[in-house]
């Protein structure tokens, strides 16, 4: 049966082995939820970072949208799988806006919000973090989450989440990577000093990324002196790492799914 509705799952993407499998699994879950819709993954990272083959076959969002329209799909929901409304999310919106201004055919578009899009999302995601803390965590262990740096308003959502998490569990810390490659990471230095000041000698590391790609495996838990793991262990803090991306964990995936449901409901 020819699909009249389409769903584009728009994510940064990853070239790290296995990371795109989480996106493929989520695509299957969405396809089962909306069996009458054509469902495809699109990447929002720029072409300069590699071609589709490097990202598990995922093409740019504009290319995926064009293919759906060519196949006769007239109603499309574009669901952002970004964590916050950062640069790539706004670039996605701008690209869709340019497409509409250029004519856009007769297709109807609706966009689903990223994971953290309002204060209700922040509260819900803070609860999801608590539900997904490592089951083997000892009471004296800290948990440190690494997110990706973002300009406003994304940075504001991260800061609000950090405050919510601290209220829920004073041993849960949230930090972000620097936005500029090669810039010093101030957050992990502050977290390291806070742990030392409280006499905390053990910590779990958790990625706060859609999928566990290179940042999670290298910058967070990599076996190198400038990773978060390396810097903490150099300070005498023993670390264990969880390598599950957010999309692999049901409480976070449910937030994105609810945003998709709202986007689909807005289609005519």
Folded structure, characterized:
This protein is an alpha/beta fold. It has two domains: 5-116 and 248-266, Rossmann fold (3-Layer(aba) Sandwich), CATH 3.40.50.1400; 119-244, Rossmann fold, CATH 3.40.50. 42% of the residues lie in helices and 18% in strands. It contains nine helices and nine strands.
Compressed to H and E, one letter per element, the order equals: EHEEHEHEHEHEHEHHEH
Helix content: 40-55%
Largest β sheet strand count, sense and barrel closure: 5 strands, parallel
The CATH class designation of the largest domain is Alpha Beta
Walk across the major sheet and give the strand order: 3-2-1-4-5
| Main structural class | alpha/beta
Mean pLDDT across all residues, rounded?
88
| Rg computed from alpha carbons, rounded to a whole number of angstroms | 19 Å
Weakly predicted, low-confidence segments: 46-56
User: What's the total helix number?
Assistant: 9
- What distance separates the N and C termini? 20 Å
Number of strands: 9
Number of structurally distinct domains: 2
The CATH architecture term of the largest domain is 3-Layer(aba) Sandwich
3D shape = elongated
Q: What is the third-level CATH name, the topology of the largest domain?
A: Rossmann fold
**Beta-strand content estimate:** 15-25%
Task: Please give a quick description of this structure.
The protein has 268 residues and is an alpha/beta fold. Helices cover 42% and strands 18% of the residues.
Top keywords for this entry?
Rossmann fold; 9 helices; four-stranded parallel β-sheet; five-stranded parallel β-sheet; elongated; alpha/beta; 2 domains; 268 residues
